[in-house]
Each structure stands twice: as structure tokens, then as C-alpha cells.
Amino acid sequence: MTETETPTLPADPRWRVAHLPFLTAVSVAVLLCAASVGYLTGGTPSAFGAALGVLIVTVSYTMSTLVVAWADTVRPALVLPLGLGAYVLKYSLLGVVLVYGLSTDWTGKVALGWAIAAAVVVWTAVQAWWFTAVRPPK
Fold first, then answer.
1. Is 10 a domain residue?
2. Cα 129–Cα 98–Cα 95 angle in degrees, nearest 5
3. 109 in a domain, yes or no?
4. Fewer CB within 10 Å: C terminus or N terminus of the chain?
5. Is residue 47 part of a domain?
6. Segment-wise mean pLDDT, segments of 10 residues, the chain, 138 residues
7. So where does this one cross the membrane (predicted)?
8. 41 is in which domain, residue-wise?
9. What SS3 class is residue 104?
């Protein structure tokens, strides 16, 4: 390969993000369930907090997936530094949100915390299921 040639991409790099549409649909279902439970247990503030918690996890996990998938298609050596950078960024932002949230009198903060925990468990379980049952490694 000469200096001007670029390395060829894998035959089908879309497998790295093939799970995102399904996980987004699952996240929408979890968001609706969490908001409903929040509303029934604590009214509108809890419904908003629960929906926001699921949305935070969905955006966070999607961002990490896209960063790692992009890095792997451009240059696999970038996966570790960019993946770690994405995790540091998202957990730092989550920490700021949670510290700020704990210092307020907002009644939806408990629902926000429970929804974040539930969304993490659901997203992780569905993603593990997807990669082991739906799309087994080649």
C-alpha cells in the first residue's frame, strides 16, 4: 500500500450499530413505562424525572456506541482512547447532573435515579441478548 492509499473498510461495518434501532425501540418502551409509573406514584414531577432518567441513559449509551463504532471503522487503534474519553465525558456529566439534582428540592429526583438504574439494567441486558442470540459473532 502506498502513502496515498487508504485502508479498505471491512466488508460490512454496519454490524457495529445494527442493534441501535432495536435498542432505541426498547428504550422508548422503557421510557413510556417509567413515565407512567412515575406519574402514578409521584405525579407529574416524578413522571418527568423517570422519563429524563431513561433518556439520559439512552443518549449516553448511544453516544458511546457511535464513538466506538466510528473509531473502529477509521482506525481500530482509536477505539480505546476514544472509548475511554467518551466514558469519562459521559460519567462526568452524569456526576454533575446527579450532584446538582441531589442539592435541589425537586420531587422528581428519586424517580430520576430509579429510572437511570432501570434503564442501565435493561439496555445492558438487551444489548447482551442481541449480541449473543440475535447476532452471534462470526
1. no
2. 75
3. yes
4. C
5. yes
6. 59 78 94 96 95 94 91 88 92 85 87 94 93 74
7. 20-40, 47-71, 77-100, 112-132
8. 19-134
9. coil
